Amino acid sequence: MQTISTQQRPSISIAENLKVVAELRTLLGRNPVWHGSDGGKVVLSDSFRPSIIAVSGTGARAEETDVQRMDVLAGVTPEGAAVIVGPEGLSIIDGDARRPLMTLPPDIAQHRFDYAGTDRSGNVVFSTMEARGRTKVGGLYRANPNGSVTTLSAAFEMWSGMDWSVDGKYIYCADTGRQQVLRFRYDPTADRLEDRKVLATFPVETGRPDGVAVDESGCIWVAFWDGWRLIRLRPDGVVDREVILPIPRAVGLCFGGLDRKTLFISTARVRLPPDVLEAAPLSGALLALEVETPGLLRPPVDAGFSKFL
Question: What DSSP designation does 292 have?
Answer without folding.
Answer: S
